[in-house]
Amino acid sequence: MGFFGTYAYEHGSWKTLSEGELPPLAEPCLWLDIHDSDITSVVYAPAGTGSGVAYLGLTPRTYFENPNASDPTDVLREAAGLAEWWGLLNSGGDVPAKQAELLAFLAEDEDPNAFEWAESEDIDEIDDGEVFVEVKTRRFLAALDLPVPDGLS
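Now predict its structure.
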């Protein structure tokens, strides 16, 4: 069984929530819901030019092999929205550079049947952030200059 955790960031600190719980939060806020070490749903407000929802690891559409599991992703749009969100907390920060940095973390919809394991690939060479979404989530939070919530560290 993988890792599960739900966290909300508002007023400069994190609180741990029940799985999937998304209470009203004061803006600017960030909500993380980690599902089975494979998906981190990131909800951020205000959304700016983004939709307010992004994913790390896999998207629900890919993970559940169901196009109705989530809206289609637009990683360029979400990277822009998240960078604007970061800019609210870091006035004078380089928002375009942050957008480029955050883009590398975001999950795109993929064909779940397209993955093929290369038997020649050395398992010791695979980055933990590509296997465990909670590792990628910690790195994503570092890119946002946010602390890691208790329980995710």
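Helices lie at 60-63, 75-89, 95-103, 128-131, 133-143.
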